Protein: DUF2281 domain-containing protein
Organism: Agitococcus lubricus
Amino acid sequence: MQSPHTISQAIYYLQSLSPEKAQEAIDFIEFLYQKEYKNVPIAPKSNEWDWLKNLQPFDNNFEQAISEKLCIQQRPNLDDLFR
C-alpha cells in the first residue's frame, strides 16, 4: 500500500503533465494495478444495485418492510425552526 505522501506526489506529477501524457500515465497505472490485482475491478459496476439480486428471494418480513408506507410526522416546532 502506498503512503498518502507518495500518492499526493503522484497526483502532483500527473497534474504537471499535458492531458495526453497524463492519460497515458493513468492507463499505465491501471494496467499495473490490474496485473497486480487481477480480481479487483478498478471501475465501479455499471449498476451498483446488482448485488441486491443475489439476496433474492426475499423473505416476507423484508417484503413487508419495504412496502410499508410511513406516515408523515407532524412537528410544528421544527417547522417553525426551519422556516
Q: What stands out?
A: Residues 4-81 form one domain. DSSP finds five helices and no strands in the chain. The chain has a mean pLDDT of 77. The CA atoms of residues 45 and 51 lie 10 Å apart.
